[in-house]
Amino acid sequence: FAIKHIKGNVLKGAAASKAGEFLSTINYLEKALVLTSFVPEKINLGENFQAKTLVKALATAAWKLGDYEKSIHYQNKVLPFAEKEPEELAEAHYFLGLLYSLAEKFPEAVEHLKTALIIFEKYEILDRLAQSYSQLGIVEENATEYTNALKAFTASQKINEEIGEDLNRAREFRRIGKIYSLRLNQFKEAKGYFFKAYDLFVKLEQTKFQVELLLDLGLVAEKEG
User: Fold this and answer.
1) How far apart are CA 68 and CA 209, in angstroms?
2) Cβ pair 128, 89 in contact under 8 A
3) pLDDT higher for 184 or 41?
4) For burial by CB atoms within 10 Å, which of 91, 156, 165, 200 has the most?
5) What's the CA gap between 193 and 212, in Å, rounded?
6) DSSP letter string, 21-34
7) pLDDT > 90? residue 150
8) Which DSSP state fits 50?
9) Can you state the percent helix, strand and coil of the chain, rounding each to 5?
10) Cα 117 from Cα 137, distance rounded (Å)
11) Mean pLDDT of 145-150
12) Which among 132, 106, 110, 108 has a CA at the least distance from the CA of 119?
């Protein structure tokens, strides 16, 4: 009975997810998850029907629905399943940090993002390390911890320079410039970083971002009188 209804509910949940009906997705997957405890360990249900896969899918569906508390609840259940795979564990902490940020629980967001950073750094997964620093900077800025945000964006910028990701590097320069301009009213520093970003966007032929940087520079000039 359990195996039959786990598989049936998972398939219905997958169809609902594909249709963008995430409330129904959660309903079906929660029914399946409850039933997994009745299946003996010796029976292999297959990857798509295991509790590990279900809690991941539930966390994602709740996130897409905008129910961040439920998403956090299920994403916390992902952590024990991910402990044996360092990169998977880092990704689980990263997503949990993002969810806590969306729920405006910034101390928890910072804690999980820093855990992800430690793992990405240990295993030299540099692209994800840079992205994690960037997300940490966004969280710290939202928490009005501007000094910490600047440190995180700067760390991301340096790693992106190391791995040759000039587009992301330019984005970090812009983020730093915005903190100096919008948060700290330090316009000289803001202009310096905006020009660095602008030069990179010119080099990369990113016209859209060039236009946005010119607007940023115009706003700084206006504030300076």
Assistant:
1) 31
2) no
3) 184
4) 156
5) 14
6) -HHHHHHHHHHHHH
7) yes
8) S
9) 85, 0, 15
10) 12
11) 98
12) 132
pLDDT at 59 over 90: yes
Look at residue 133 and tell me whether its pLDDT is greater than 90: yes
State the Cα–Cα distance between residues 58 and 88, nearest whole angstrom: 17
Which pair of tokens denotes residue 66?
Answer: 């905008």
* Residue 42 pLDDT > 90: no
Spell out the residues 6+ positions from residue 9 whose beta carbon is closer than 8 angstroms to its own: 28, 29, 31, 32, 35
pLDDT(45) > 90: no
**CA-CA distances (angstroms) from residue 13 to 4, 28, 155?**
14, 5, 40
Confirm if 39 and 3 have CB atoms less than 8 A apart: yes
- The set of residues, in sequence order, having a beta carbon less than 8 Å from that of 74 and lying 6+ positions away, is 55, 56, 58, 59, 62
Q: How far apart are CA 52 and CA 104, in angstroms?
A: 27
Query: How does residue 139 score in pLDDT terms, banded at 50, 70 and 90?
Result: very high
User: For residue 14, what are its two tokens?
Assistant: 């997958």
Average pLDDT over residues 92-113: 98
> 16-50 in b/e burial notation, b at 16+ Cβ within 10 A?
bbeeebbebbbebbbbbbebbeebeeeeebeeebb
Task: Give how far Cα 78 sits from Cα of 103, 123, 166, Å.
Answer: 18, 21, 34
